[in-house]
Amino acid sequence: MSAPTAASAVAASAAALLRELLSDQGRRDPYPVYARLHELGTVVPLPPDGKHAAIVHGHDAVGRVLRDPGFAVLDGDYLDRTSTRWREHLAVQTMQNSVFHAGGDRLARVRRLFGQVFSASRAATLEPVIERIADRLLDELAAAAEHGAVDVMARFALRLPSDVIGEILGVPEPDRAGFPARVKAFDAILELGQRSFRELRAADTAAAELTAYFAALVAERRVRPADDLVSALAADDRLPEPELLANLIVVFNAGFRTTANLIGNGLHLLLQHPDSLAALRADPALAPSCVEEILRFDPPVHFAVRFAVHDTEVDGVPVPEGRTVLILTAAANRDPARFADPDQFDPTRTDNQHYAFSAGPHYCLGAALGRAVGRIALPRLLTRFPRLALAAEPAARHQFMLRGYDRLDLLCGTAS
Ligand code: HEM
């Protein structure tokens, strides 16, 4: 038997690390695996019979692949070549009809339509709205906290972004409570690794309910327009109906679970770093750099997947046409070649160019809004509750997509 080549030895090590990443322990704490990947280089090949051709995790390499037109999101044509069953799943179809899996003219059209609404200048004009909603929710939280520990995820972190995006889209307030469970079921199809049949079925049911909901809302706004995004899009015939509904679903979904996890992950991090928490409480002007560091250090989204549209290579690792690469954006955020002391949470860090919002043509449409919500929510919560403390250590997180706490029980104390 001949000795394995250097490339196949690296591929075997990378495959072992990927298995470790997807294990229970790796899902709980992926950062030690990311650190070992960095020791292997910036890009590592995987064995030819695996799902992906390579893992891309170095900071520069991640940025290059995400911006490279030679790599594309997995669109319908790609899925048709690799799977015969995807059209049976409404949840997968919904994602496919949305901006997330669009390319070319379709991508440009949707991003133009939604882009204005979620621009940085629009996010700035929304700040008073975000502050008003945050203060109302904090009043409710304070009332509930008088009776003991409160789950800040359910009562604040999820509700704030859901109410903000609900206002923008025009989803009436009483309807919003029905979203978190459905959105969670829908989002299960985005997770890294295998999905069970039960998860797929639940995602399809959620997709059917969300589609029916937005179809009724669009029909209603066509008859009685209001000053909101659903009315504007309902009056515009540039998007075919299935694409319009799919994009409303994903924008609503993407708009609130990500931001909720920024708030929840951030709060937990700050409670573990009392000096940083005290500094932010004393000076809310630190909020922008604190939010960036939370997004670098413990982001809600850890990965993206792209396929090679032609034979190519990344940092010397070949990627044949049609093969996918697993892009670990959260690992890039901890690249020791890019960040000093990458495993140190340091909200005073400058030059903090992370990939929490991805990069290139699919760069997050709601980045400005997500940042604004985080920057407003965290200091307000800390100043409102001067004795904030964990009531219980939260259950471990296992997701790479929408990584966050299911619940975060806090003792809020009172301002007496
Ligand atoms: C902290 C909050 C947020 C984080 C961490 C986040 C993260 C991301 C990431 C990583 C992507 C790119 C996925 C890829 O490259 O495949 C993305 C795309 C997207 N995000 Fe966000 N997001 C956040 C907030 C929001 C908000 C508030 C909205 C709603 C307006 C939003 C809407 C979208 C949309 C529509 C896309 C798809 C863009 C495209 O494919 O062209 N996101 N987001």
TrEMBL record:
It comes from the Bacteria. It holds the Pfam family p450. InterPro entries: Cyt_P450, Cyt_P450_B, Cyt_P450_CS, Cyt_P450_sf. GO terms for molecular function: heme binding; iron ion binding; monooxygenase activity; oxidoreductase activity, acting on paired donors, with incorporation or reduction of molecular oxygen. Keywords: Heme, Iron, Metal-binding, Monooxygenase, Oxidoreductase. Belongs to the cytochrome P450 family. PANTHER family: CYTOCHROME P450 YJIB-RELATED (PTHR46696:SF1), P450, PUTATIVE (EUROFUNG)-RELATED (PTHR46696). This is Cytochrome P450. It comes from Labedaea rhizosphaerae.
